[in-house]
Specification:
By secondary structure, the chain is mainly alpha-helical. The protein is built from 6 helices and 2 strands; from the N terminus they run ααααββαα. It is globular and about 45 Å long.
């Protein structure tokens, strides 16, 4: 994973701006993936569709396998963070997921973040600024990471949360519905962010 704590403040802000600008191109990419898989684009219509989207996501990962999953469509040309794998991952390949598997995690994560942002008008993409002491690293693992936040409430990183559930499932045989899956996390996060 990319170590955001090593970025300069300017680089962290540039990353945040590019990630925020990538939201709609990535949502279109996810819609194209759904269509290519014979699924209705209505799965992206709102939070009420998250159970069906999560079901599609988990079935695809389970049937394809974490290291073999291949997307059916290409990244949009207008995505400001085009690349082999999501920029939050790092330059080297993942030992657990195919590059396309990482992109699917990102696509579902950013879509989920956009739904939460729409539910909470004051929420915005921010650079997490709390260095906080971390006993192992000295700096909070989230320092300078792009996160969604609303005034006076907790921050969250949608792609990291989807990545965490997916890693837990494949590496620890964790259930896909940990925390209620994506629908449960959405309810929890929007409540924490003030919806």
């Amino acid at each position: 994973m990319l170590d955001f704590s090593e970025l300069t403040a300017e680089d962290a802000r540039s990353y945040r701006n590019a990630y925020a600008a990538a939201g709609e191109p990535r949502r279109r990419w996810l819609a194209a993936e759904l269509s290519a898989a014979g699924q209705p684009s209505a799965l992206l219509d709102g939070p009420e569709e998250l159970p069906a989207l999560w079901d599609w996501y988990t079935r695809w990962f389970d049937s394809a396998g974490a290291r073999e999953l291949t997307l059916r469509t290409s990244q949009p040309a207008d995505d400001p963070q085009r690349g082999t794998r999501p920029p939050w991952h790092a330059a080297e390949p993942s030992e657990y997921f195919s590059d396309d598997g990482l992109w699917l995690i990102d696509l579902v994560g950013i879509h989920w973040g956009l739904l939460a942002k729409a539910a909470i008008p004051e929420a915005e993409w921010v650079v997490y600024a709390d260095k906080g002491p971390d006993p192992k690293r000295g700096v909070d693992v989230n320092y300078q990471r792009t996160m969604l936040a609303a005034p006076g409430v907790r921050h969250f990183d949608p792609a990291s949360m989807v990545h965490g559930i997916t890693v837990s499932h494949f590496l620890r045989n964790g259930p896909w519905d940990r925390y209620g899956g994506l629908p449960g996390l959405y309810a929890h996060v929007t409540r924490d962010l003030g919806a």
